Structures are given as structure tokens and as C-alpha cells.
Amino acid sequence: MLRDELDELKRKFINELKQISDSEALEALRIKYMGKKGLVTLLLKGMGDLPPEERPAAGQAVNGLKEELAALLDNEERRIKAAERQRRLEAETIDVTMPGKRPVIGKRHPLSIVRRQIEDIFIGMGFEIADGPEVEYDYYNFEALNIPKDHPSRDLQDTFYITDNIVLRTQTSPVQIRVMESHKPPIRIIAPGRVYRSDEVDATHSPIFHQMEGLVVDHGITMGDLKGVLDVFAKALYGEDTRTKFRPHYFPFTEPSAEVDVTCAWCHGQGCRICGYSGWIEVLGAGMVHPNVLRTVGINPDEYSGFAFGLGLDRLTMLKYGIDDMRLLFENDYRFLKQF
Ligand code: 2NL
Prior knowledge:
Blueprint: H1 2-18, H2 23-34, H3 39-46, H4 55-91, H5 110-124, E1 128-129, E2 135-137, H6 138-141, E3 161-163, E4 166-168, H7 173-182, E5 187-196, E6 208-218, H8 223-238, E7 244-251, E8 254-263, E9 280-289, H9 291-296, E10 305-312, H10 313-321, H11 328-331, H12 334-337
Residues 173, 176-177, 211, 213, 215, 251, 253-254, 285-287, 289, 293, 308-312 line the site of 2-{3-[(4-chloropyridin-2-yl)amino]phenoxy}-N-methylacetamide.
């Protein structure tokens, strides 16, 4: 009776085992027969119902089946694990003869290349780099720079106003005002950064652009120091044969003021399309810091003097690389950027 039952169970088990090809299903089968409530386990538990004299033989028979099934399960498990491993290895095969995929490496933006080159030149002359907020008080952007209330750059059309007395800075000069407020001379700084003006976008205008200003304040600073520093700068940037020319100009924050031309780096002063056949290119505005500006930040103009200058990084970058449309600097088209 029991024999038949065991044989039947074994046949059923072997049939089910044959269907199985993955280790999850195999584990389910192991539980179905050998688990706490498994078919074989239930048989063993049922021993108690037999008359005592039949128990030893029956127990031996069921245990024998249990060992047999366990051995079959272990065997099958080894076979399935090996097959699964083989499938995985085949799926993960790497063809080492395939051509590689080159990672795309980013490049420095042309504006950053030029900014860093100019920073290096001034650092070489003992300047330090200063920075400050792009959202500024009207006071730092205009008032402290001796720019009167009726000055055209204060027009609502020309400046982005956040509130009545907060603007997007139109120059990096406010950085230098802040440095003069908090530091005693000697001061030797450059202030590179992003500035804003309410302009329509075209090939030569953008509401966001980049500027670098410089400032030196100490005892006995003269126009000669300004000319010397800018001459060294122009030669370092454009080559030793570069010359500079100062033309009188007007800025509210400097007196005297000048616009500074350098000999055209494309034609070396011969005259070409780039410099409008004049041989000169205007690159800087500069001058001696206005005594009113020094007084406003608490520096005595009878004791100290200083010079300042400003240059447009976007224009300089366009000149250096022969870029004819400013929009290219802001669109971040990789086909453009990868050329530098
Ligand atoms: C230009 C002209 C200039 C300054 C900027 C300056 C700053 C302070 C005091 C006095 Cl804190 N001056 N900056 C001076 C002269 C010219 O920039 O054409 N920029 C693109």
C-alpha cells in the first residue's frame, strides 16, 4: 500500500522535474515536496497514525524516498546553475575587435579662454582677481561712480531694474567700489564678469555680455603708470610689435579719460577689413579715477590717486578668433564651440 503510494509520488515528482529549466521553478518544486508542508514531509508526519509495529519500516521507506528526491534535486540544481552560467557568459561576450566609442570631452568656451589669458597677464603684473554681485544696488552701479541721476545710462530703456534702487549691473565697476570701501590702498585688482544692458540682440549687441575692469590705487599713481600697464598688456595679448594710442574721451568716473587703440593684430597696422583700413582697433576705455569717486569710498584724493580701465571681453574674443556674430558666443552650439 505505502510502497505504491511512494512509487506514485516519485513518478509524479520526476515528471514535474523534467519540465523545469530554471532555478526559481526548481526551488518551488523543492518546497512543494520537501518544505515544511511538503508532500514528503506530510507523509513523514502521517507516520503517527500507523500501528506502532509498522512505523519503523514505513519510516525507513519514506526517508529513503526523501533522500532519493533530495539527490535528484541537487543534481538538477547543479545542471541548471551550470546552464544558466553558460547563458550569462554567452550574453556578456565582448567583441574586443569592435571599434571603441570615444567619449565626448568638453572644451573651454572661447570667452573663458580669452578671459583666462587676460587674467594671467594682469596676475603677472601683481593684480588680484575680485568679484561681486551681478544684481547690484543703484548706489554701487551708478551713484558711487559719479554717474548723475540724469545720465543716459540710467535710462529705463538701457538698464534692467529689479526695483527702484536695485539693478542688473551694467559694468563690473561696482566690484571695485566695494573693494575700495573695504580695503586700504595699495589696491591692484581686475574684476572680470557678466554685465547687462537692455539691448536688442543683433550681430554686435547682446543684453548679457562680459567685461573686465582694472583698478590701481596707491600713493603717486599717474597717467604714466596707466599707459605703461596697458602697453605691457597689449604687447602680451597681441605680440611685442603692438603699439597703443590714447585718445581723449569722457567717462563720468575718470578724469582725465581716454579711449585706447592698439595696432591691428590682423594687419600689424597696415590697414585691413578688420580695422576698417585704419591700422588701429579700439579695445579699452581708461582714465585716472575721479576724485569724487575716491571721496565717496573714503579715500583721500589729496593723499592717493589711481587709474582704472575697462574692456569688453566679447568684442576682444570676436576679434581674436575672427567671429563675426556675437550671438554665436551665447547659443552654445557644440558645432561652433568645438572649434576652439
Ligand atoms: C569701457 C570703459 C572704463 C572704468 C571703466 C572705473 C571703475 C572705478 C573707478 C573709475 Cl571703480 N573707473 N572703471 C574706467 C574707465 C573706463 O570702461 O569702455 N568699458 C568697456
